[in-house]
Amino acid sequence: MELIEHYQPEYVIRFNARQEACSCPACQAASGEWPKTRITLGNQQRESLNAACESAAREILLNPDAFMLHAGEIESDGHEQNPWDEALNQQCINMAVHPALALESSLYAIGVLLSKAQRYVEENQRDPQNLNDMGEQLAQLAEAGVLSEQLALLPPIEVNRVEALGEMGAMRLNLNLPPMQKMMFMLKLSELAVMEPARLQERLRELEQKPLPLLEEKPWILRNALIYRLYGEGVPGNSADNYGEALMSLTRQFFQLKMLSAMWLEDNQSLTEEVFIVLFSAWSSWQAQQPQAEDAKHTADYVLLHGLSLI
To answer: Is-contact 78 4, C-beta < 8 A?
Structure first.
C-alpha cells in the first residue's frame, strides 16, 4: 500500500488530550467520532475538528500555535490524487500565513492567486508549477508591501457590503447564551432582513465604525479562522471550477464574523474570548447547513471581484 503524508495540527492534539467531554449544544446532539474530521488532498491526509464544537473552536482560534503541524506517514485510502488542487491550496495557505500580510491583505493575495489560477484552468494549463511560480511572485510582492498598497487602492463598493449585511438577516444561529440574551441578539439579527436599503446602509456604517478590541489585540484569532478553512476544508476544494465562489466564501465569512462581533458590542461592554467562541461555533454550525449553490448568473471573475469588495 502506498504511503502518503499525514498531518495533525496542535489543536487536534490538545483537544484529544482533554479529560472532560464537551457539553456545548452541538456536542449534545452529536454522536460517533464527532467533532473529529479529516480530509485527503493530493498526497496529504489532514486531521481536523469541526468548529461547531465550542471546545474545538477554542483550541483552533485561541492558541497562536494551534497550527503547528505534527507530520508522519499513513497508508493511502485510495483517494485520487490531484496535484493541482493540492498546490493551489498550499499557495493559499502560504498567503494566509505570510508574516508581512495583515489578514485583509492575505485575503486580497488569495484573491489575486485564485484569479490567476482561474485563467490557467480556463486555458487548460493545470501545471502545479505555474501555481508555485505565482506563489513565489506574490510572496515577493508581499515582502515589498505592494499587495497591501494594491488593496488600499481598491475602490470601495459599499452596495455589496450593504447587500451582504441584509443577507445576514436570514441567519439562524443556535447561540449558547442565556435565553433572553440569545433572543435579543437574534431579534437584532433578523431585523436586517426587513430594513429598507437606506437604513441598511446606515446600519452598515454604524457597525463598521465599531472598534473590535479583542480581534485587534489578538490578531491570531481571525488569522487562525482563515487557516482553519484552508487547511481543514482544502479550499478552494477538490476539482472546483469557480474560484470566485471560493474567495467569496472566505471574505463573506470574515465580513459576517466582524458584523456579528460589532452587533454584540452594541449592547455589551466587551467582546470576550468566550463570547466570540460562542458566535464562531454557532456561525460554523449554521454555515455547514447552507447549500453551496454556485452563482450561475455571473462569471467567476465577477464573483471574485464581488468577494474582494467584502474585505
So the answer is: no
How far apart CA 56 and CA 49 sit, in angstroms, is: 6
Beta strand ranges found along 29-103 (DSSP E) = 36-41, 44-49, 69-75
Name the percent of the chain lying above pLDDT 70: 98
The per-residue pLDDT for range 95-141, each reduced to its tens digit, is 999 999 999 999 999 999 999 999 999 999 999 999 999 999 999 99
pLDDT tens, 264-295? 999 999 999 999 999 999 999 999 998 775 65
CA 115 distance to own-chain centroid = 18
pTM of the prediction?
0.96
Q: Where are the alpha helices (DSSP H) in 98-242?
A: 103-122, 128-143, 146-153, 158-167, 179-191, 197-208, 213-217, 220-233
Distance CA 294, CA 291 (A): 9
Q: Three-state SS across 97-110?
A: HCCCCCHHHHHHHH
How many whole angstroms separate alpha carbon 99 and alpha carbon 106?
Answer: 10
Three-state DSSP state, 304: helix
